[in-house]
């Protein structure tokens, strides 16, 4: 079983290398494609990407660690990103944060037990005049109150 999984992962990455090439510039699109498929970039995939691009695995891991949108652990099906920047802070982000954490029963950086939602902080979403703001996958929600944020979470669960 483990061997089969490894082979299919290797095949998947080989196809990505064929598509994006073996240059250093191919690393990011390959990692993003793996994450889209699996919600994260498993250890074995990191090793295989390094081997197939002929770079050191530490370099692959460094890139994943550097970018907050790349993950080395499984993520929830939905990613909720709460703006942590000062304007949203002043607009009442803290109360929204408390309500969201209470509703999901997790802390920032964690994923719900049912794997449906991962909660993260993000920097400014560009909606400062309508804060507090939060992004659910690709959609931005603004002028949040604790009640409004909880309602949004209930709808995606
Ligand atoms: S500070 Fe939150 S959207 Fe800009």
Q: How would you characterize the overall build of this protein?
A:
The protein has seven helices and four strands. It has 157 residues and is of the alpha+beta class. It folds into two domains: 2-66, Arc Repressor Mutant, subunit A; 78-156, Glutaredoxin, CATH 3.40.30. The protein has a four-stranded mixed beta sheet with strand order 2-1-3-4, with helices on one face. Strand 3 (134-136) and strand 4 form a beta hairpin. Helix 1 packs across helix 2 (27-38), helix 3 (43-53) crosses helix 4 (57-66) and helix 6 (93-104) packs parallel to helix 7. The model has no long low-confidence stretch (mean pLDDT 93). The protein binds FE2/S2 (inorganic) cluster. Residues 83, 85, 87-88, 124-128, 131, 133 line the site of FE2/S2 (inorganic) cluster.
């Amino acid at each position: 079983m483990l061997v089969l999984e490894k082979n299919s992962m290797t095949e998947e990455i080989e196809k990505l290398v064929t598509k994006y090439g073996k240059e250093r510039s191919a690393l990011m699109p390959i990692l993003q494609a793996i994450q889209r498929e699996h919600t994260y970039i498993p250890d074995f995939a990191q090793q295989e990407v390094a081997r197939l691009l002929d770079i050191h695995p530490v370099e692959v891991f460094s890139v994943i660690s550097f970018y907050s949108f790349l993950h080395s652990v499984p993520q929830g099906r939905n990613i909720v990103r709460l703006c942590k920047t000062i304007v949203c802070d002043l607009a009442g982000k803290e109360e929204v944060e408390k309500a969201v954490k209470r509703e999901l029963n997790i802390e920032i950086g964690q994923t719900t037990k049912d794997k449906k939602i991962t909660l993260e902080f993000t920097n400014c979403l560009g909606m400062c005049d309508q804060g507090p703001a939060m992004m659910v996958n690709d959609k931005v929600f603004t002028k949040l109150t604790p009640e409004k944020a909880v309602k949004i979470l209930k709808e995606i669960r």
